[in-house]
């Protein structure tokens, strides 16, 4: 693991540069997710209200997916990646600094659009590096998202505990991401794009066969991911009744083990096979959720969420890598289609959890997510991954 991580990523400037883009999404989202309870209290929202407002982010992501593929075809992966990183950093300033509740939905819409466009461009960057340099870095780069999510949530928890105003804190984080984007710009612009990426027309098509099953797995897995990102802190505070200091620790534990799994994934997946890793991930995620549900204490919940992090860790790298290699489908279209449904699951899932939680309880809502993890486990045994 360490040799692969060192040779293919740490010593490779282009790998590190594109990994910084993945990191920035996680860093911004982890910060926002930790401050969701603050926004909820600031405007006196119940779980259903919060879930409805959070719907704005998936709407932005879903409507921007084909725009992202179009931008890559017109501007290229490099310009799209750097530009969307900057736009995303600016967008995340809006929901936390909103002077009224009416500013939050458009702000989250722009955040979702920025995440979606960045995600498409950066994954194409990874496939270009892998193709030209004959290395495997997809899982490691997705691991950088997890590292960003972990650090974002952990540092935001510390900042919140220290009494730093969320708006001021988010401003500092956005500035850091913009500086990061400019610092890696020259290296990203040296990545050799495949000729088919630029000038290629993007089109929507109806997925079928193995690709359709991959999409269904992606939806289930991303609902699990999105639920962990948006509701872990709320669960730790409202169900576990943890102190403010520990509110973000559930998300941090989840993110840490997701990061470790992804950093090890580029070595693990070739050894065990994508199907076995994906199947085991669904089972481990379900087990972790059940632990947190039935033993809602601080440390058991943190351990349970960490198990979920390990379970989901390799799902996205496997599915995105396979989507870029679907026979008869261009990389940009394959990634855009998978991203449309995966990001939809990531962002719509938490909204549905909000409604279920309001009608029943947050614990029961997480039980529904557990069932989806088991569906993901079953489907992973029925499809041949590319």
Task: Please tag this protein with its features.
MFS, MFS_dom, Growth Hormone, Chain: A, 80% helix, mainly alpha, 386 residues
Structure description:
It is a single chain. This protein is mainly alpha-helical and 386 residues long. It is built from 17 helices and no strands. 80% of the residues lie in helices and 0% in strands. The two termini are 23 Å apart. The protein has helices at 2-10, 13-34, 36-42, 47-54, 56-75, 77-91, 93-96, 104-133, 138-161, 166-188, 209-238, 249-272, 274-294, 298-312, 315-323, 331-359, 362-379. It holds the Pfam family MFS_1.
| Domains (count) | 1
- Name the overall outline: globular
Q: So, the CATH homologous superfamily? A: MFS general substrate transporter like domains
Number of strands: 0
Question: Mean pLDDT, nearest integer?
Answer: 87
Give the distance, in angstroms, between the N- and C-terminal Cα atoms.
23 Å
* Class by alpha and beta content: mainly alpha
* Elements, N to C (H/E): HHHHHHHHHHHHHHHHH
């Amino acid at each position: 693991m360490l040799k692969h991580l060192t040779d293919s990523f740490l010593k490779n400037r282009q790998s590190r540069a594109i990994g910084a883009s993945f990191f920035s999404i996680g860093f911004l989202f982890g910060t926002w997710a930790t401050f969701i309870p603050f926004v909820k209290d600031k405007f006196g929202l119940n779980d259903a209200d919060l879930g409805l407002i959070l719907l704005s982010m998936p709407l932005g992501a879903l409507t921007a997916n084909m725009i992202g593929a179009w931008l890559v075809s017109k501007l290229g992966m490099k310009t799209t990646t750097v530009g969307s990183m900057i736009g995303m950093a600016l967008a995340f300033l809006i929901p936390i600094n909103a002077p009224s509740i009416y500013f939050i939905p458009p702000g989250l819409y722009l955040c979702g659009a920025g995440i979606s466009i960045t995600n498409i461009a950066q994954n194409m960057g990874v496939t270009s590096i892998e193709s030209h340099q004959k290395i495997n870095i997809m899982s490691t780069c997705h691991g950088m998202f997890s590292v960003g999510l972990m650090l974002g949530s952990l540092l935001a928890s510390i900042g919140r505990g220290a009494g730093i105003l969320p708006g001021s804190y988010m401003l500092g984080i956005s500035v850091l991401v913009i500086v990061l984007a400019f610092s890696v710009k020259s290296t990203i612009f040296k990545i050799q794009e495949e000729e088919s990426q630029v000038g290629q027309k993007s089109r929507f098509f109806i997925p079928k066969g193995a690709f359709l099953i991959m999409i269904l797995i992606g939806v289930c897995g991303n609902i699990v991911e999105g639920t962990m990102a948006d509701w872990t802190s709320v669960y730790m505070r409202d169900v576990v009744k943890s102190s403010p200091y520990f509110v973000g620790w559930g998300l941090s534990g989840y993110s840490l083990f997701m990061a470790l799994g992804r950093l090890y994934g580029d070595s693990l997946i070739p050894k065990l096979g994508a199907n076995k890793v994906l199947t085991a991930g669904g089972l481990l995620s379900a087990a972790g959720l059940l632990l947190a549900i039935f033993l809602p204490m601080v440390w058991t919940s943190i351990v349970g969420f960490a198990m979920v992090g390990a379970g989901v860790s390799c799902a996205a790298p496997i599915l995105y890598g396979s989507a870029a290699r679907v026979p008869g489908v261009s990389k940009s279209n394959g990634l855009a289609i998978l991203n449309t449904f995966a990001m939809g699951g990531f962002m719509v899932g938490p909204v549905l959890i909000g409604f279920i939680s309001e009608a029943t309880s947050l614990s029961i809502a997480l039980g529904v997510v557990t069932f989806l993890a088991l569906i993901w486990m079953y489907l992973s045994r029925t499809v041949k991954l590319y």
